[in-house]
Write a structure and sequence with these properties.
The complex is a heterodimer. By secondary structure, chain A is an all-beta fold. Chain A has strands spanning about 1-5, 10-15, 20, 25, 30-40, 45-50, 55-60, 65-70, 75-80, 85-95, 100-105, 105-110. In chain B, strand 9 (about 85-95) and strand 10 form a beta hairpin. In chain B, strands 2, 4, 5, 6, 9, 10 and 11 form a seven-stranded mixed beta sheet that branches. Chain B has a four-stranded antiparallel beta sheet with strand order 1-3-8-7, with no helix packed on it. Chain B has strands spanning about 5, 10-15, 20-25, 30-35, 45-50, 55, 65-70, 75-80, 85-95, 105, 110. Classes of the chains: A mainly beta, B mainly beta.
């Protein structure tokens, strides 16, 4: 079985401040972890993934995420938030041999000008 | 080209109608997916095609019928839908491997009246 939790439904941050969107996961075996972003009335856009290797993963639009095996976390971060980062963010996990992605419940990020 | 296209963008249908949703990708991906998404919720997997064969059906009602005519195209045939089937229907594709990210189309907004 595999599951992922996003403990915050809503995150508000001021423009220019660092942002963090939290994600924890539960999976047997090696996890494949993903972050996606969804703007209103659009499909999901891939941001970054962790498969193996360096625990700090860099992705699109200045986002990065840190894989922490001991805490089973994969938090999304950005050093300086933009108003245009406001969107719905989904963390997802896939067990090594599985075809299905399991999504978290989503976190609405609002960056205030 | 990392684009997945979906047509139509919007669809309104009565409960007795038959309609089809279409999805196309030209990235050479061998896995294609249909998801259903309600507002502000994570996508729910419906079907997975791998090498043009149906590999996963997540207990979806038979009023939804998928079809994969070739490696670039994916259809979802709709018949006798219910109002609760109103949602955003997302198509996605990925390379064969389980560590590969999925690329999503913009979706079809379906309203069943």
């Amino acid at each position: 079985a595999q599951s992922v939790a996003q403990p915050e439904d809503q995150v508000n941050v001021a423009e220019g401040n660092p942002l963090t969107v939290k994600c924890t996961y539960s999976v047997s075996g090696n996890p494949y972890l993903f972050w996606y972003v969804q703007y209103p009335n659009r499909g999901l856009q891939f941001l970054l993934k962790y498969i193996t290797g360096d625990n700090l993963v860099k992705g699109s639009y200045g986002f990065e995420a840190e894989f922490n095996k001991s805490q089973t976390s994969f938090h999304l971060k950005k050093p300086s938030a933009l108003v245009s980062d406001s969107a719905l963010y989904f963390c997802a996990v896939r067990r090594g041999s599985a075809r299905q992605l399991t999504f978290g419940s989503g976190t609405q990020l609002t960056v205030l000008p | 080209d990392t684009e997945v296209t979906q047509t139509p963008k919007h669809l309104v249908m009565g409960m007795t109608n038959k309609k089809s949703l279409k999805c196309e990708q030209h990235m050479g991906h061998r896995a294609m997916y249909w998801y259903k998404q309600k507002a502000k919720k994570p996508p729910e997997l419906m079907f997975v095609y791998s090498y043009e064969k149906l590999s996963i059906n997540e207990s979806v009602p038979s009023r939804f019928s998928p079809e994969c005519p070739n490696s670039s195209l994916l259809n979802l045939h709709l018949h006798a839908l219910q109002p609760e089937d109103s949602a955003l229907y997302l198509c996605a594709s990925s390379q064969r491997g389980t560590g590969d990210e999925q690329y999503f189309g913009p979706g079809t907004r379906l309203t069943v009246t």
